[in-house]
């Protein structure tokens, strides 16, 4: 597959601007009524890999000096030409110097940096499989993911290397180290330039990444995504950048590249649009305001807590007049927060989108800011090529517009399944291949999606997934806890916080603070249980399933009672 063959012809906007999702009463299926122009068709050539696909659409060689990435803390710039060379050199180093081969899993443990996209594109170029993790995860959590994914090599920020050591997996660091025995990505980028043999190249059906998500129930599982899944979402992303007129925007990246939202946008998907992205290593509100002013940022893919922060705490000493578009994803954006943001920033288009790790990122979006302004509670319309059903959980019937039920999805971006977990995979797909999202939704008559509630057992803290089952397993490992259930409690700033109901062993003197500390010492900060209530028994169904809704109602009553 040559680079030229993968390149789109021209860049004119052949976009059908009819929007909405059409409902077919015969089949009960909603589908996008928007059409992709000819130049945005999802490539079907079987021997195409996502790295070749992305790099084939970099700006032409005559524009090699165009800036792709800027480090927000040092202002160091990476041009598209440098990015291409770094990817090719690192891929060569991974293959020839480190022996990484097609199908090997490479574990990336690092915060955001301008090097992160190079690492992802190089790993994918050699046909290795990317697995990523939050560097705030504990050594125990990382060891579990290393084991589950079968990682063969680690690529870590130097401060995270210690967490990989106990796993025994060989690891390299990102920046050159004073320890001469440590190989670094920087050295490989500088030294290696041997060609990759044709045989090593991956193709569309090969696995590209294993990202972790708890899905609708249970603990975190490896979501298997292919090159084809990424090629499809990246095609749609490029189309959406064009259709939302964002092609000349300067983007700000603080959402993490180790999750699908940041990975699909910033580590892979925005480069075909030729945009410039300013990268923050981690989120800091003040640093974000400074970066917007200094780099004249116009577009921020964000999450609700950041939008709330901008609406509430924006410091007028900063000039944010460059801002044009802010996206919200990863967690529900309330109408109140959206209204408050629009009041503070009347000239900025705020749009919500809906997506999942299991759908390789976005499934819905808003083509225009106006559509979003008039429907502040909606998450937009289906992306082209997506099909949806809204299924009543009791009757199994497909719901017409305004009828609520579980959202089911089909598209070229949907995962292959959960790694080595046939049971969870078959529970998540219907017999005829629909992905059951675990979200309670409806479409209005114009085909706009509204996410009403979560059916799945999941807590979203700052847009990060927290699996109740994982915290319950931990709580049950405490010698003085005989039963436990973890539920979400609404929180203005973080969206939700995890709260535990705990049954103590007889005569135990366990206190709330001890339970909080016990969990906190073993999990990443965003998973901490932040409230504990003791209870005599956990309510369960006849089949032994925790009745979480009853506990959520109980917690709300307890809050009200405490207020009186
Ligand atoms: C920017 C946020 C909202 C806030 O950042 P933060 O204020 O730094 O807070 P953190 O949650 O990152 O963690 C801070 C915690 O870590 C701690 N911490 C800090 N550094 C340290 C340290 N080195 N050591 C140990 N502790 C530390 C720190 O003390 C603090 O602890 P605590 O106060 O107890 O919460 C951040 O949480 C964030 O980026 N969240 C986004 C998560 C995210 O991208 N989720 C996407 C999942 S995928 C998905 O759903 C996709 C949807 C999608 C939807 C639509 C689309 O179009 C496409 C996709």
TrEMBL record:
Pfam families found in the cross-reference section: AMP-binding (PF00501), AMP-binding_C (PF13193)
GO molecular function: ATP binding; CoA-ligase activity
Record domain AMP-dependent synthetase/ligase: where: 65-419
Ranges annotated as spanning the membrane: 222-239, 251-271
PROSITE patterns linked: AMP_BINDING
Domain AMP-binding enzyme C-terminal: 470-545
Coiled coil: none
Keyword presence, Transmembrane: yes
Keywords: ATP-binding, Ligase, Membrane, Nucleotide-binding, Transmembrane, Transmembrane helix
Signal peptide: none
Similarity section: Belongs to the ATP-dependent AMP-binding enzyme family.
Family annotation (PANTHER family): 4-COUMARATE--COA LIGASE (PTHR24096:SF337), LONG-CHAIN-FATTY-ACID--COA LIGASE (PTHR24096)
Stated name of the protein: 4-coumarate--CoA ligase
Species this chain originates from: Kalanchoe fedtschenkoi (Lavender scallops)
């Amino acid at each position: 597959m040559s680079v030229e063959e993968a390149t789109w012809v021209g860049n004119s906007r052949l976009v059908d601007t009819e929007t909405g999702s059409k409902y077919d009463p015969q089949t009960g299926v909603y589908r996008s009524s928007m059409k992709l122009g000819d130049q945005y068709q999802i490539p079907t050539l079987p021997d195409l890999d996502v790295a070749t696909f992305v790099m084939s659409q970099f700006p032409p060689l005559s524009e090699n000096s165009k800036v792709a990435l800027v480090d927000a803390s040092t202002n160091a710039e990476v041009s598209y030409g440098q990015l291409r060379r770094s990817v090719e050199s690192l891929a060569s180093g991974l293959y020839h110097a480190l022996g990484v081969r097609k199908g090997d899993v490479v574990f990336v443990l690092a915060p955001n940096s301008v090097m992160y996209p190079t690492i992802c594109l190089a790993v994918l170029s050699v046909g290795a499989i990317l697995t990523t993790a939050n560097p705030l995860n504990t050594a125990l959590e990382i060891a579990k993911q290393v084991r589950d994914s079968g990682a063969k090599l680690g690529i870590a920020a130097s401060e995270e290397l210690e967490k990989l050591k106990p796993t025994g997996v060989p690891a390299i660091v990102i920046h050159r180290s004073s320890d001469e025995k440590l190989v670094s990505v920087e050295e490989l980028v500088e030294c290696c330039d041997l060609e990759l043999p044709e045989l090593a190249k991956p193709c569309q059906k090969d696995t590209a990444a294993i990202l972790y998500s708890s899905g609708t129930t249970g603990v975190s599982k490896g979501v298997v995504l292919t090159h084809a899944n990424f090629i499809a979402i990246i095609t749609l992303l490029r189309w959406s950048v064009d259709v939302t007129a964002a092609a000349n925007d300067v983007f700000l990246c603080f959402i993490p590249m180790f999750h699908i939202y940041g990975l699909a946008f910033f580590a892979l998907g925005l480069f075909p649009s030729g945009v410039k992205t300013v990268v923050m290593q981690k989120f800091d509100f003040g640093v974000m305001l400074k970066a917007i002013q200094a780099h004249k940022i116009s577009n921020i893919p964000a999450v609700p807590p950041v939008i709330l922060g901008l609406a509430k705490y924006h410091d007028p000493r900063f000039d944010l007049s460059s801002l044009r578009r802010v996206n919200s994803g990863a967690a529900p954006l309330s109408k109140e927060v959206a209204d408050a943001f629009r009041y503070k920033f009347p000239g900025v288009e705020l749009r919500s989108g809906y997506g999942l790790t299991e759908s390789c990122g976005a499934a819905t979006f808003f083509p225009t800011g106006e559509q979003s302004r008039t429907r502040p509670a909606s998450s937009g319309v289906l992306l082209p090529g997506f099909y949806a059903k809204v299924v009543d959980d009791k009757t199994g019937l497909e719901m017409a517009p305004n009828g609520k039920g579980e959202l089911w999805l089909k598209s070229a971006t949907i995962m292959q399944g959960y790694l080595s977990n046939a049971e969870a995979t078959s529970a998540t797909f219907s017999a005829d291949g629909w992905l059951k999202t675990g979200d309670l939704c409806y479409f209005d008559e114009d085909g706009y999606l509204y996410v009403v509630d979560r059916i799945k057992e999941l807590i979203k803290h700052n847009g990060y997934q927290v699996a109740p089952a994982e915290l319950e397993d931990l709580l049950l490992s405490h010698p003085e806890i005989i039963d436990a259930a973890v539920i979400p409690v609404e929180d203005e700033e973080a969206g939700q916080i995890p709260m535990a109901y705990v049954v103590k062993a007889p005569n135990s003197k366990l206190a709330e603070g001890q339970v909080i500390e016990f969990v906190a010492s073993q999990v990443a900060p965003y998973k901490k249980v932040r409230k504990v209530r003791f209870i005599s028994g956990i309510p369960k169904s006849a089949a032994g399933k925790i009745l979480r809704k009853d506990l959520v109602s109980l917690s709300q009553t307890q809050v009200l009672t405490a207020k009186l």
